[in-house]
Amino acid sequence: MKVTFQIWRQDGPTDKGRLKDYEVDGLTEDMSFLEALDHLNELLVLKNEKVIAYEYDCREGICGQCGIFINGRAHGPHANMTTCQLHMRSFNDGDTIVVEPWRAQAFPVVKDLIVDRSALDRIIEQGGYISAKTGTAPEANSIPIGKDVADKAMDAAACIGCGACVATCKNASAALFTSAKINHLNSLPQGKPEQHRRVLEMTKQMAYEGFGHCTFTGACEVECPEGISIVNIAELNARILKARLLG
Ligand code: SF4
Ligand code: FES
């Protein structure tokens, strides 16, 4: 299988950056997309050229590190899939594949396809935790949680912090990410003590980091690899009102 990758090359945050063409032969449809990029990097090493910088960790759809734009779509052409889960069989022999980093003011490019997503970590730092007494873990069944609540919290907890929602949103809003993280903890009894402070502090940090406002276009939900629902954003808006009154 032979394709042409058009890949964004940028030496650092201040470099202007540009797309560069790479014709790559010797690929197979069973290779993952990242393995195809690995193969290209091996060829560049042999030619003594600078390798392409891209990020990954688990390669299993868990860590959220691998996000890139592929042919204008976050994480590539399929719904509910991270870049590392994408395979070359999703493309045809002879295709041209455009590969770019996330584009958002709050995610400055570090190098090539790697962006700095630490703004999401700083939102988490403002409330993505619970207070719990130290010592032996309490008996799990001593805090009864209904299945509907547990399911809702687990659905929100599925967010892997990849940033595709931000990169896809025309406003570069982090509302889907932030609402998922807040609803996960605020839905559960363990998250109640800090619930209002969590809402106010995490949304304040979100605005401070330069993410745009949510205008509820729903693009984030479509491109989220974990299928996080925009119902989370509606619920967060109600939580913000409540926190302002009671927090
Ligand atoms: S809400 Fe979805 S797209 Fe956004 S960071 Fe979480 S997993 Fe990624
Ligand atoms: S490398 Fe971990 S989600 Fe893709």
Q: What's the short story on this structure?
A:
The chain has about 250 residues and is α+β, with helices and mostly antiparallel strands. The chain has helices spanning about 35-45, 120-125, 145-155, 165-170, 175-185, 195-210, 220-225, 230-245, and strands at about 5-10, 20-25, 70, 75, 95-100, 110, 115. The chain has two domains: about 5-110, Beta-grasp domain (Ubiquitin-like (UB roll)), CATH 3.10.20; about 120-130 and about 140-245, Orthogonal Bundle (Fumarate Reductase Iron-sulfur Protein, Chain B, domain 2).
What would the average pLDDT be, to the nearest integer?
96
Tally the helices: what do you get? 8
The CATH topology name of the largest domain reads: Fumarate Reductase Iron-sulfur Protein, Chain B, domain 2
User: Quick one: biggest sheet?
Assistant: 5 strands, mixed
The strand count comes to 7
How many whole angstroms does the radius of gyration measure?
A: 20 Å
What is the succession of H and E elements? EEHEEEEEHHHHHHH
Which CATH class of the largest domain applies here? Mainly Alpha
Q: Which outline best applies? A: elongated
Give the helix/strand class: alpha+beta
State the helicity in percent bands: 25-40%
Taking the alpha carbons of the first and last residues, their distance comes to 59 Å
Count structural domains: 2
Q: Give the ligands present.
A: iron/sulfur cluster, FE2/S2 (inorganic) cluster
- Strand content bin: 5-15%
Could you state the CATH homologous superfamily of the largest domain?
Answer: Alpha-helical ferredoxin
Widest sheet, order of strands: 2-1-5-3-4
Low-confidence stretches: none
Q: Oligomeric state of the chains?
A: single chain
